[in-house]
Amino acid sequence: MTFEIRWERDDYSRIPFHLYHDEEVYALEMERIFRGPCWSYLCLEAEIPNPGDYRTTWVGDTPVVVSRATAEAGGAIHAFVNRCAHRGAQIVRKTHGNAAEHVCIYHRWCYRTDGELIGIPFRRGLKGEGGMPKDFDMAAASPQRLKVANVSGMLFGTFSDDAEPIEDYLGEFGTGMVRRFFHKPIRILGYSRQLIRGNWKLYAENLRDTYHASLLHEFFVTYGVDRATQKGGVKMDARHRHNMNHAYTATDTQADAQAAYAGTAGVKLDRMRLTDTKLLQHTPEFADRMNLAAPTFFPNALLIQINHSLGTRQIRPKGVDAVEVFQTLFGFADDTEEQTRHRLISANLVGPAGFVSMEDGEAIEIIQKATRNERQATNIIEMGGRGAISDLAHRVTETPVRGFWSYWSELMGVEAPGGVR
Ligand SMILES: [Fe+2]
What we know:
- The chain is α+β, with helices and mostly antiparallel strands.
- It folds into two domains: 48-146, 3-layer Sandwich (Rieske Iron-sulfur Protein); 182-412, Naphthalene 1,2-dioxygenase Alpha Subunit, Chain A, domain 1.
- It has helices at residues 23-34, 138-141, 166-181, 200-207, 213-216, 218-223, 254-261, 337-346, 357-371, 399-412; strands at residues 40-44, 53-59, 62-68, 77-81, 96-98, 101-103, 110-112, 117-119, 145-151, 154-158, 186-196, 232-236, 243-247, 292-297, 301-306, 309-317, 323-332.
- A hairpin with a 5-residue loop joins β16 (309-317) and β17.
- Bound molecules: fe (ii) ion.
- Fe (ii) ion binds at residues 206, 212-213, 216-217, 360.
């Protein structure tokens, strides 16, 4: 299938709303992006430390098993499509566990930890009757495998032989960011899932939009966790597909902020008061001293530090008008009990009922509702400037959103003629 976009501007500062609603565009995204030459985040190595450990995950809307092979099978990490070769049922239905082999419940077809089909009940029939044809090729029927890459304990997978090596795909920028978060062994603290009734790209944009942070999120602006008056900005890789929003707490004053937001309708810095301020306590724990760092990796991953809350988020498209955000919270293996408790308190900021993340879900849902069946109109993405896409050492920008769209367009084969990259 081919489709065309009549771009109003060649710098991706006008995105047609129908791209968040078209079923055909969604189907092509699954093919050209999620099954195309991209690396998708799968899970963390720390979640499958032992031989036989597995986790179920998603690449786009394709279900995937990530598993560490048993010792006899070599102990390597594998990923394969979580769909029985026989009739298409999910093979593994649990979120995680440990198993020497995986068995589909429907007709008990059996798979090795690397995904290879190794057993079919009644394959040779019974008393000389029935069974599978003699020439049935078990290896050829096995579920599709993904190539897996391990970057400092963060596992990525791709379906495509055309994907660049992961180091090139993430670039120095991306691998540096992963190393920053995983500079020492981690400990998994828990999970959350947030179902948002909106297109997955609206969430990808939200992560690249530092401009909204202190306007939508009253908690951020009131308590100076993340606001436009602080030092910070956006940084991208050379291709502008990945981005990092970042901020440094205590680099502005309450008076700076009061003055800057004075004319902004609906923003009040003194409406809320916290009786317990533990949530706000922050002691820099990374060498760069950032209190907010949110590197996002095209197409489906985010690493996020908000004060002492650390996590990964995986974007799971669930059809054209729904996305699940799956979050894995972690701390470091050498954290004290007190530090772990502090990270868990900080986790109140994120997840489906988080003081901050809840609002992102709502913002996305009201876009999805208000733009349905809109064939002509576009949005406006000009905050931070038009034209070239570049890093900026301030927070009043949404330029990385244009970076996302320029790479999306390249993969989808619909770049604006002479468009910026
Ligand atoms: Fe947000």
